Amino acid sequence: MSAVQEFLDRLDYPMYVVTAAAGEERAGCLVGFASQCSMVPVRFMVWLSTANRTYRVACSADFLAVHLLSRAQYDLAEHFGGRTGDEVDKFADVAWHEGPAGTVLLDEAPDWFVGRVERRTDGGDHVGFLLSPLEDAAPELRAPDWQPFRLSDSEGIEAGHPVPGA
C-alpha cells in the first residue's frame, strides 16, 4: 500500500446523498467525495462516479440537491448507496418532494442545499460538479449528540455499481 493510500485511509469525511433531476428523470446516490471549495463566493464541489446513473442525469441538470444525513440514517444511506438506479427506481419507496428549480428533496433529510451547476471538471473516474448554492434548509433544533453520517458509518454498504478498478 502506498503512503498516499495510507493517508487517505485515515480520513473519515462526511457523506451526502446527491439528487439530480433532468426532464422526467430523477436520480440519486451516496457521495463521499464532496467539500466546500471556496468561501467568497461560496462554492461546493460534488464528485460523481462516471459509472453511476446519477452522473448521467446530472450531466443534463442545471441544479443538484445535496443532503446531509445523520449517523442514525444508515438505512437511507444504504438505500442510495447500495442500489443502482439502472435497475431500480430509488424514489419509489422514499418520501420526496420537488424543491427549488425542480430539484428532488428527500423528506427524511431536512439538512440540504440546492446548488446551480457552474462547471463540470473531469477528475478521472469521477466528474466534479461545482455548485453555487441557491437555497438551503436545516432543522432549527438538533439533538446535542447529532453527528453527520461519515465514511466509517458506511461500513457494510456495498456499492450499487462496482467500484472502478476494484
TrEMBL record:
Record's keyword terms, sorted: Oxidoreductase
SMART domains named in the record: Flavin_Reduct (SM00903)
Transmembrane segments: none
InterPro entries: Flavin_Rdtase-like_dom, NADH-dep_flavin_reductase, Split_barrel_FMN-bd
Keyword Oxidoreductase belongs to the record: yes
Keyword Metal-binding found: no
Coiled-coil ranges (or none): none
Chain ranges of the Flavin reductase like domain: 8-153
PANTHER family recorded: FLAVIN REDUCTASE, POSSIBLE OXIDOREDUCTASE
UniProt-recorded name of the protein: Oxidoreductase
Protein source organism: Streptomyces violascens
